Amino acid sequence: MDTYCVFGHPIEHSKSPWIHARFAQLTGQSLQYHKTRVPLDGFAHTVHAFQVSGGKGCNVTLPFKTEAAALATRCSPRVSLAQACNTLKFDGAEIYGDNTDGLGLVNDLVRNAGFSLRGKSVLLIGAGGAAAGVLGPLLCEKPRSIWVVNRTPEKAIQLVQAHNSLALAEGVDCQAFGLQHERVSSQAFDMVINASSSSLHQGALPVPASVLSQHGMACDLMYGPAAQGFMQWATDHGTLARDGLGMLVEQAAESFHLWRGVRPPTAPVLSDLRALMAQA
Ligand code: ATR
Q1: CA angle, 118 as apex, 112 and 124 as ends, to 5°?
Q2: Model's pTM, two decimal places?
Q3: Residue 126 C-alpha to ligand 1 middle, in angstroms?
Q4: Which one of 126, 231, 277, 280 is at 20 to 30 Å from 157 when CA atoms are compared?
Q5: Catalytic: 89?
Q6: What is the rounded distance in angstroms from the CA atom of residue 3 to the CA atom of residue 13?
């Protein structure tokens, strides 16, 4: 039976095996999918051993996404832009790398939440790996603007610079600022996306509530307890809040499609996963 795996550190709480088992069931595909905790200095070795043992592909999560991009012998333009990779597909000696995180986010916002990004103003908080993974696909939705804000403004500037050509081609006003810049705090955005790890660290929310719009949406890329602080803050200020659980299911669906050539239905998987997590 074809075998897949998710590699990360930590990995114990990964929902990916459950999600891919449901996709396999719903599409009638025969496969197995495991999770493996990888030593921090053992990523390349672990992936090569899995490939040699007959593995067909893998997902990669923190903190190995940059290493995965370097390991790929061929990669999608999304990986080149993000310098991060969450999906590897093995084909003989070739390791093809893709990044499905951004597509997963866009699919969740546009299809599942019914929020079109075209012509809208977007505030992206954070400039680390998570933000890098989603900026390209967000630009491709042709919003009016995407402003990237980060605690360390230099990192936001670098991220925006790396996406300059794409932003120009898509006609998007893409700029970088520090978290407290007055041009940011003096306007409300249609979509506010938290791609910083501030919720995870239960740190103070990184931007003032003035950025939220009552007609807009606020989305944290995290899910479960890690997303609660940001979502509560948005809800308290009258803005529709969304967590990253839909993105998790949608990015998995894109990986599944890359590996199997079949697009799994995501709506029943997302609602079952939400119910499962609420029980837990
Ligand atoms: P990930 O891969 O999850 O994005 P990362 O690459 O370490 O992780 O990036 C974490 C992001 O969260 C960064 O943008 C970081 O800001 P800095 O670049 O200034 O470090 C941001 N971040 C982490 N803790 C934060 C906090 N308490 N307030 C605001 N931003 C925070």
Answers
A1: 80
A2: 0.96
A3: 6
A4: 231
A5: no
A6: 20
